[in-house]
Amino acid sequence: MSALLRAYAGLLRWIGYAEAGVLTLLMAVIVLSIAFQVIMRFIFGHPMVWVEEVSTYAFVWITFMGAALGLKQVKHVKVELLNDRLTPDGHRKIKLIGYVAVLAAVGFLAFKTPGVIRIESFSYTVSLPIEIPRAWFYSIPLLYCCLMMAATAIYEILALLVQGDEDVLVSFAPAEEMHDPSDVPAATQPVMS
Fold first, then answer.
1. Which of these, 148, 147, 155, lies nearest to 100 by C-alpha position?
2. What is the model's pLDDT at position 164?
3. Exposed (0-12), middle (13-18) or buried (19+): which is 153, by Cβ within 10 Å?
4. pLDDT for residue 78 is more than 90
5. CA-wise closest residue to 72 among 120, 115, 16
6. CB atoms within 10 A of CB 48
């Protein structure tokens, strides 16, 4: 089972690399399109009507894809109120409960989202030169996020149940976080391991 778990971790890691690349590209799209809009409006006096819509859609994808990547890198908000008082087994149980809760929440959202996708498929983009169903910019990013977060949560749950050690839990996070993140300054931590 350990080899299968390592293969699953490798797949999620490569998906995380792809997500980071797409997120970088989408951020560049936002910056460049808004810069283009400023030039067209204030220098040439001819604003482009599609820039705001493209930027909004890119931002929505950044939000949901970034949430999925954040879970892979263990970057979501954590409440560490009890960390000093728990045993290693207590840490493992709390993390297991947390990942089960994440799986339940994103599973529920993923179950409900196809109905919303069907409804949004009747509405199209407003100012883009081509008509694209709005579902591609609102519901589908949410569904993608839910599926990727579920895949990560399943991996983490399996790692906790099968191996039970804390080193497996943060396999997508920088190596420094496996020990004590407060010992390493934030500026020196790599984005992905």
1. 155
2. 67
3. buried
4. no
5. 16
6. 14
How far, in Å, CA of 17 to CA of 93, rounded? 29
**In this structure, how many other beta carbons lie within 10 angstroms of the beta carbon of residue 69?**
26
pLDDT of 15 strictly over 80: yes
Helices (DSSP H) in 84-138: which residue ranges?
88-120
- Crossing angle of helices 51-72 and 2-42, in 10° steps, is 160
Neighbour-count burial of 187, counting CB atoms closer than 10 A to its CB (0-12 exposed, 13-18 middle, 19+ buried): exposed
Q: Where are the beta strands (DSSP E) in 44-175?
A: none
- In the block, tokens 């883009």 appear at 128
Spatial contact of 107 and 146, defined as CB atoms under 8 Å apart:
yes
Considering all CA atoms of the chain, what is the largest pairwise distance in Å, rounded to the nearest integer? 65
Joined together, the tokens standing for residue 101 give 């809760």
The torsion region of residue 132 among left (phi > 0), alpha (psi -120 to 50) and beta comes to beta
Q: Tell me the C-alpha distance between 114 and 129, whole Å.
A: 26
Domain ranges of the chain: 2-183
Q: Is 119 exposed, middle or buried (0-12, 13-18, 19+ CB in 10 A)?
A: exposed
Report the distance separating Cα 145 and Cα 63, nearest Å: 9
Query: Does residue 133 sit in helix, strand or coil?
Result: strand
